[in-house]
Specification:
By secondary structure, the chain is an alpha+beta fold. It has a single domain, classed as Peptide deformylase (Peptide Deformylase). The chain contains 4 helices and 9 strands, in the order E-H-E-E-E-E-E-E-E-H-H-H-E. The strands form 3 sheets. The chain has a 5-stranded antiparallel sheet, with helices on both faces. It has a two-stranded antiparallel ribbon with strand order 1-9. A hairpin with a 7-residue loop joins strand 5 and strand 6. It is globular. 29% of the residues are buried. The protein binds zinc ion. Zinc ion binds next to helix 2.
Length: 188
């Protein structure tokens, strides 16, 4: 197992649709193990393969809810159905999310509060998870990564300006930038 470098916004892999996984072989199993280790080291609650430079439709998640229950898994070739978005003002406290590929930043974004994930697990078996709340948000965020979409691409005014400014200030937004969990200090 190994922690892999996380690509930062601007890297082409993050901005292109990923390809379906074919056979779940040793290389896929190794990728998923490394992604789980990288996510834990970051730390983060979700990680998609394009974030470690692998253009495949795989994401992992690990999140402990308000009741202390851990939700964790691997989604291969997922599909996601979501309920319509609510209208109204964004709540910066309740609706802000971050991304390991835009490290250290958080901005509010409206997400659906309900999502139905169908995917194949690492064991090759199909599964389905009906998610609400923050888990539904995680699924939407990670699923977007597989289509080459970052949450930064979805932000509304004035948060779109805010993230663009942060990306400029940190000299991101160009190919070849990455960071290593456990090695690079995010706040530097
Ligand atoms: Zn992300």
């Amino acid at each position: 197992m190994a922690v892999r470098a996380i690509r930062i916004t601007g890297d082409p892999t993050l901005h292109s649709p990923a390809a379906p996984v074919g056979e779940i072989d040793d290389s896929v199993r190794e990728l998923v193990r490394d992604m789980a280790e990288t996510m834990a080291a970051a730390p983060g609650v979700g990680l998609a393969a394009p974030q470690v430079g692998v253009p495949l439709r795989v994401f992992v998640w690990s999140w402990v809810d308000e009741d202390g229950v851990e939700h964790a898994g691997t989604a291969i070739n997922p599909h996601l159905l979501i309920a319509p978005l609510a209208l109204g003002e964004l709540d910066e406290d309740e609706e802000s999310e971050g991304c390991l590929s835009v490290p250290g930043e958080r901005f509010p974004l409206r997400r659906s509060t309900e999502a139905l994930l169908t995917a194949t697990g690492l064991d090759g078996e199909p599964f389905e998870i009906r998610a609400t709340g923050w888990l539904a948000r995680i699924f939407q965020h990670e699923y977007d990564h597989l289509d080459g979409v970052l949450y930064a691409d979805r932000l509304e005014h004035p948060y779109d300006k805010g993230v663009a400014k942060a990306i400029r200030k940190k000299s991101w937004g160009m190919p070849g930038k990455s960071w290593m969990p456990g090695v690079d200090d995010l706040d530097a």
